[in-house]
Design brief:
Arc Repressor Mutant, subunit A; Four Helix Bundle (Hemerythrin (Met), subunit A); 2 domains; 71% helix
Length: 226
């Protein structure tokens, strides 16, 4: 079932379609291998075919959908190799961010990280994986901003949906508390200015994917590229 997001006031039709399809692909509302039916989706999103097709081209360039001429358009299967490349990129960059944050973080920024953690705990109790996913993105985004590395974040986010899909599926397969513990330990290391420990925790955190991938593939084998 396609989740229809609300269109913002100044958002173009193409950008709206990209954002909505991206949300549904990441959250597996549009499942890997599922065909995108243009007419049906245009009616649901209240857009014409031109911006819809433009949005499809954007997502095809990002390897999130496959356009097969004269056959149809389909949600891409999860590519383990591509996901691992994104994980590795994040691991390198975010380990460096953890070290930098030990030197640069302010009291107000530190409080922001702790507040994020507190809200995490609330939504874990409620089992709201969509809220937890957003909080996880916000947590890591805060570290990029604290360190003044906005361009690094842009680079990561351009490829992030491939990794994000496995993150959502891992929430459905494994307990989420271990991610929360990683965040808490990382904040404490940064708060104490322990760069070595902060780097170690950051790298461990990004290795969680390798711990979860077997469980994800066992539960959702049809989602993965053969």
């Amino acid at each position: 079932m396609l989740t229809i997001l609300e269109r913002t006031e100044r958002e173009s039709a193409k950008d709206y379609v990209v954002r909505t399809l991206l949300y549904n692909i990441i959250n597996a509302e549009l499942r890997p291998g599922e065909q995108l039916l243009d007419q049906e989706m245009c009616e649901a999103l209240k857009v014409s075919r031109t911006p819809f097709r433009e949005a499809e081209l954007v997502l095809a360039q990002r390897r999130l959908i496959d356009i097969r001429p004269k056959i149809g358009t389909y949600v891409s299967y999860i590519d383990i190799t591509l996901v691992e490349e994104v994980r590795h990129l994040r691991s390198v960059l975010e380990a460096e961010l953890a070290v930098m944050a030990c030197r640069r973080i302010t009291k107000k920024e530190l409080e922001g990280l702790w507040e994020n953690l507190a809200v995490w705990k609330l939504y874990i109790e409620k089992g709201q994986e969509d809220k937890i996913f957003l909080l996880d993105k916000q947590f890591h985004g805060m570290l990029y901003r604290i360190c003044g590395r906005d361009y690094w974040q842009e680079l990561v986010e351009s490829a992030a949906p491939h990794f994000d899909r496995t993150t959502i599926l891992s929430f459905r397969c494994k307990p989420m508390e271990h991610i929360l513990i990683d965040h808490e330990e990382l904040i404490r290391a940064i708060e104490q200015g322990d760069a070595g420990e902060a780097e170690r925790i950051s790298r461990r955190h990004l290795m969680r994917y390798t711990e979860n991938i077997d469980a994800i593939r066992e539960k959702y084998p049809e989602y993965f590229k053969k």
